[in-house]
Specification:
single chain; alpha/beta; Rossmann fold; two-stranded parallel ribbon; globular
């Protein structure tokens, strides 16, 4: 008997690059969906099934979802996120898919992207298919942007108060949890899994950077309007600045400090630590 076909979007992204080898190791029946087949082929290799479809064009998913049992829905941040993923949800229903596993996030935040995820979760829950929502907190890979100044300096800047903690999640843990949920067809229906690592303050992040990189790293806090001016001058689009400003305000109230055991409970291992993440990516933070 053939294994159920799983269609995967977002395979070349932050978590997708870790998910692909985990799915291969499990021997699952996977079809990868990508807008740019040639670019995806360079990342994913020649031994995977690749089908072209564009989230901006729902009809392009008609062929991509033929015979698909489960759609794994993941796409990058975009002001059109809700519209794009709605196209995929409607196509999954029309194609006769049985379930959707969606990579989401903390849906309680008032920022635009979490609000889009919340709306999409509502649409999936109402569409009649089985579903599971994966809600990882702050990705450790965001530190590549927060700590970009470490390439030529010894400090990084944000507007998050020093005494506020944020639980950070390694994308490799997200891939582990995702692969487990996709492989286990039963037992996850109707669930929304909040996933985190340990909660830390940005002063503690600086201390961890210092310890791992063997340099004296400092966290410099600025007012939100100063931070907003800084990222505006860096060229961030206005919709992304709005999103991040609201996320900072939400974080400042301690709303991202919660911790869960989802990685241990579902993927079967403890969450990776911030120290491990920085050590594994030390070259990205090394002086140029």
């Amino acid at each position: 008997m053939s294994k159920p076909l799983i269609a995967v979007t977002g395979a070349t992204g932050v978590t997708g690059q870790h998910l692909v080898p985990r799915l291969a190791a499990r021997g699952l029946n996977i079809r990868y969906i990508a807008r740019d087949i040639e670019k995806a082929r360079q990342v994913l290799g020649d031994d995977v099934e690749l089908v072209s479809a564009d989230l901006d064009d729902g009809t392009s998913f008609d062929r991509a979802l033929e015979g698909v049992h489960t759609l794994y829905l993941n796409s990058g941040h975009s002001p059109a996120l809700e519209e794009q993923q709605t196209n995929a949800i409607e196509a999954a229903v029309a194609a006769g898919c049985e379930r959707i596993v969606k990579l989401s996030g903390n849906i309680d935040s008032p920022a635009p992207i979490p609000e889009a995820h919340k709306a999409l979760e509502g649409k999936i829950a109402a569409c009649g298919l089985r579903y599971t929502f994966l809600r990882p907190n702050f990705y450790m890979t965001n530190l590549h942007y927060v700590a970009a100044g470490l390439k030529d300096g010894d400090s990084f800047t944000s507007a998050i108060p020093r005494d506020v903690e944020i639980s950070m999640t390694d994308p490799r843990d997200v891939a582990d949890l995702t692969a487990t949920v996709l492989a286990e067809d039963a037992g996850h229906d109707g669930q929304g899994y909040y996933q985190t690592g340990a909660a830390v303050s940005l002063d503690e992040v600086a201390e961890t950077f210092s310890r791992v990189l063997k340099r004296d790293i400092r966290y410099e806090m600025v007012d939100v309007d100063v931070w907003e001016d800084m990222v505006t001058r860096r060229g961030l689009p206005s919709w992304l600045i709005e999103h991040q400003v609201k996320m900072i305000g939400f974080a400042a109230n301690g709303a991202y400090a919660y911790e869960t055991t989802a990685t241990q409970d579902i993927a079967g291992h403890p969450s990776r630590t911030l120290e491990t993440f920085i050590a594994d990516h030390a070259q990205a933070f090394a002086r140029t």
